[in-house]
Specification:
The structure holds 2 protein chains of 2 kinds.
Chain A: E1 3-7, E2 10-13, E3 19-26, E4 33-38, E5 44-52, E6 55-58, E7 65-70, E8 73-78, E9 87-94, E10 101-103, E11 107-111
Parallel strand pairs in A: 2-11
Antiparallel strand pairs in A: 1-3, 3-8, 4-5, 4-9, 5-6, 7-8, 9-10, 9-11
Chain B: E1 4-7, E2 10-14, E3 19-25, E4 32-38, E5 45-51, E6 56-59, E7 62-67, E8 72-77, E9 86-92, E10 102-103, E11 107-112
Parallel strand pairs in B: 2-11
Antiparallel strand pairs in B: 1-3, 3-8, 4-5, 4-9, 6-7, 7-8, 9-10, 9-11
The chains are: A mainly beta, B mainly beta.
Chain lengths: 112, 113
């Protein structure tokens, strides 16, 4: 089974500062990887997914980008944070096969 | 694309009572429907899922029903306990597209003891 590590757990950043959130996965190789965002009091929105190294698909236009430099590493970045980037960011991957999807414990980002 | 609506947004029940959360989906091609439970400060945890070739699935106090014709599915929790208090999310996806889940907005369940 897969184990998902996300850090940091919480982060407070000023508007205009850069962002880098990291997700690493232990388990089977070449997993599909996903970044979701959860705004306060709302459901989860898919931001990016990756089916392999260097392969990133963006689901919504936004101020963020993602990269997958290694098989089990997925990074969410921004060059300049906006207030609207605040939220709970979750990395996910399937346990085995295409489903079910399992989530890490997330990073709570507050942009001030 | 797929759109998932979830009701109610909040639900309060007395300990021991049943709780029901309902979701509707828009894309008839969706064929995988998981339910997640999220506790404060944690990522969502899968509690049960159902595929479109099945109408009902049970796991102890939790059950999910699916009506493909009406495009809705429901989570049923019986004999609720205080530890069932959490936010519950339904989701839908088309398996051929992997795990691109579309989530409902969530239901805050409070079980009063």
């Amino acid at each position: 089974s897969q184990t998902i590590h996300q850090w940091p757990a919480t982060l407070v950043q000023p508007v205009g500062s850069p962002l880098s959130l990291e997700c690493t996965v232990e388990g089977t190789s070449n997993p599909n990887l996903y970044w979701y965002r959860q705004a306060a009091g709302r459901g989860l929105q898919l931001l990016f997914y990756s089916v392999g190294i260097g392969q990133i698909s963006s689901e919504v236009p936004q101020n963020l980008s993602a990269s997958r430099p290694q098989d089990r590493q997925f990074i969410l970045s921004s060059k300049k944070l906006l207030l609207s980037d605040s939220g709970f960011y979750l990395c996910a991957c399937p346990n085995t096969g295409p489903e079910p999807l399992h989530f890490g414990n997330g990073t709570r980002l507050t942009v001030t | 694309g797929e759109n998932v609506e979830q009701h109610p947004s909040t639900l309060s029940v007395q300990e021991g009572d049943s709780a029901v959360i309902k979701c509707t989906y828009s894309d008839s091609a969706s064929n995988y429907f998981p339910w997640y439970k999220q506790e404060l400060g944690k990522g969502p945890q899968l509690i049960i899922d159902i595929r479109s070739n099945v109408g009902e699935k049970k796991d102890q106090r939790i059950a999910v029903t699916l009506n493909k014709t009406a495009k809705h599915f429901s989570l049923h929790i019986t004999e609720t306990q205080p530890e069932d208090s959490a936010v519950y999310f339904c989701a839908a996806s088309i398996r051929e597209y992997g795990n691109k889940l579309v989530f409902g907005a969530g239901t805050i369940l409070r079980v009063k003891s």
